[in-house]
Specification:
The complex is a heterodimer of chains A (226) and B (285).
Chain A lengths: L2 H34 L2 H32 L3 H32 L8 H27 L2 H26 L5 H36 L17
Chain B lengths: L30 E12 L2 E12 L3 E5 L6 H7 L10 E9 L2 E2 L7 H7 E4 L10 H11 L6 H11 L3 H4 L12 H13 L5 E5 L7 H14 L4 E5 L3 H7 L2 E10 L2 E11 H6 L4 H7 L5
Parallel strand pairs in B: 3-8, 3-9, 6-7, 7-8
Antiparallel strand pairs in B: 1-2, 1-4, 4-5, 9-10
Helix pairs in contact in B: 3-4, 3-6, 4-6, 6-7
The chains are: A mainly alpha (226), B alpha/beta (285).
Amino acid sequence: MRSTFQDDLNLLETTLQEEGALVLRALRGALNALEQRDHELADEVIAFDDDVDDRYIRIEEGVQLLLARQTPVATDLRLVLAILHINLHLERMADYCVTIAKLSKLVPDVEPSPRFVEGFEEMGSRCEEMIRIALDSFGDRDLERAESLVELDELIDRANRRVVERILELGEAAAMREYGLRMVLVSRALERIGDHAVDIGEQVAYLLTAEFREFTDASHKTAGEV
Amino acid sequence: MMTDDVTIPIDVAPVEIAHERRAPDTAQREVVFDVRDLAVTYGSTTAISGVNLEIYRNLITAMIGPSGCGKSTFIRCLNRMNDLVPSAKIEGQVLYHGQNIYGDGVDPFAVRRRIGMVFQRPNPFPKSIYDNVAWGPRVLGMKRGLDERVEKALRRAALWEEVNDRLKRSALSLSGGQQQRLCIARAIAIEPEVLLLDEPASALDPIATSAIEDLMHDLKREYTIVIVTHNMQQAARVADLTAFFSLEVGEGRRSGVLVEYDSTDKIFTNPTDQRTEDYVTGRFG
């Protein structure tokens, strides 16, 4: 029944997963560009954002037409709304990857402690894992995995706080201060990618339970958290 | 009496658009009907006036609008059904592959042979399922391979699986939705090019409606479909193109007019005319 509608829904979901796969590639590219100080790769990551935007726009248009023409209700309605939100979260993640790529080109010629690079690699790997879990939990309609994103995000938040502390220890030299400033923004970008992955998990929960809720209450975090 | 002496060209090359998700670009569309300045009056009442539009091959074109806007009158002009209304007077032209179906010497039966119609209420003959579908081919002398022809029509109408073990039973024993699909099978058994559907699902329940809508989607690979529907969402769901008709009232006269005709995507997301916007958003009509 309603085969066209079902086809359209499937196409939207496939395109969304495709967009997610592109975000993972962009993130890996941005992390490598940062670690290896590879400006060419950074430029590729920046240009690659057009591919993500292409999917983003196609999904936006598809959702618009589906809402206008098929009047989805119940689970179908929740799925369409979840796709709309997840689409936005993925697009923002890709924008953060561009930010990291741009910042990687602006790093002054200083050699800070390798612990920095290690810290970002750890945060980046956790981000990748979170994006994968977010996409899989959506694809598999797996509430438990979606909710598991909160704990993973906590690890990224902690790593982010450690990076900030290390930056404060970088010293007074102008180049080091500039480096530190750039790296705060990289760390912040990775931390935000983690937040968007949690938000995708929340959309999965909404899809499955029909309840609007945040996994964590950002406005009531404990003292000392960023 | 119907004859096979059809004066209207039918050997038009098929267009490969069956798997396209969206309507093809205007440039690629093949015009089946070119309606020019059409006006219909019943006695002193003007039903529609000044209607100009083209209908394209292998697409579903929906006519929507409030009651009395003339959408049914319009669709009935496409196969000269209004000839059967004594007071009806038709002006303008309805060009079918370039030939005016209201021109001199055009046989209305030949027109209806190419342009089939299915009505609001299922109207099977009080005969067997088989005889309903075989009726048209028999009248037209298409008697060779009749069994295969009946089976093919029932398959295309997505009814074969449900009735193949009881073809000799009365058509009136079928459910409303099955009867309507039988009427579609009866219409396509004589292999028309165009199917006109006048509110085909308005007497059906949601499940039967859904079956008819899926069927339309399949049928457009082989047929050009024009549907009149008062159910706006049905037009949104099934049609490639949508025409919005409205009733214009002024200076002591009322007439149905074509307000806007565009892709269904456009009509339901960003219509050009404020009257269309008001109608599709439910603020009028």
